[in-house]
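We treat protein structure as text, and this decision shapes the records that our systems exchange. Because each token names a local backbone shape, the row as a whole describes the fold. An entry from our holdings is shown next, in its original layout:
>
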Amino acid sequence: MSNTEKTSKFLSFILRHKPEEIGLVLDPQGWANIDELMGCARRHGTQLDREHIEQVVETSDKRRFIISDDGERIRANQGHSIPVDLGLVPVSPPDHLFHGTATRFIEAIRAEGLLPRARHHVHLSASRETAAAVGTRHGKLAMLEIRSGDMARAGHLFYVSANGVWLVDAVPTVFIRFPE
């Protein structure tokens, strides 16, 4: 694993799930002061510098993080398991969105629908390609098509994170088209 990948995984873990592991405190919107982040990481054995953090933010194909306009703070765009208010506003989704998962999860999804589990939202993609890239990380791919337009008309709220990931509280089975 490259140093950039290690840094990205470290930032994901700290900014999305466990800031307290290094003594970092996020504000209510999930922002961390970059200097504080580097200091807390250093005290816990991880060396970070501003240039490398900025490189991870700028070069990540998934655009998981954003740096504030003043360049002083960083946060994850979505995927939190800790309480944060990303300030997302509901938006109308396209008629169909996609969710890539592993085939081993299909029976549970047929029974329960798509649930956020430890996260705040279910993550959906506007393209099959992006959903496939996500799904294949977890095993043999099963592509789910979500009738998001119908969901929205039924009262479900959709959001889009800063990096283009579609978010929804849950997806009931009735709105899922399963693979043949």
